[in-house]
Amino acid sequence: MKQKGIQYVTIDKPGKGVFVKHRDGGWIPAEDGMVILEQDEIRTAPNVSVDILLDEGKAGSLEIKGGSLLKALDLKTNFATGETSTLLNLAVGKLLAKVEPLTGNSSFSVRTPSAISGVRGTSFEVEIEEPSRKFPF
To answer: How many domains does the chain have?
Structure first.
């Protein structure tokens, strides 16, 4: 049963090299169907990708590419109105997002170390290089 105010984000068929850190614990291997909540983090090993489903894929999906670190900052749903609020923080790596058209005051944003991008429904990609690769000097 869904709890009021929580947006359900789940991991879809992760392979080896995908790890989750729940807000109260350490890194553990990701499992198919694992629920991601606010303040949880997902880390992928190099050359390993994982798909994340937003509301069982009805609200969209994310593909987190290898060598990425993503944190779920805000994942809320107003079940009375159906409006959602999603804010993700991509610290490093690459994220491909497919966001279904949003309704009302719903929001979907990805924050990086240098910018924040918000969309209302589209497909897009965000890539953050590690500082050592961005600044070779």
So the answer is: 1
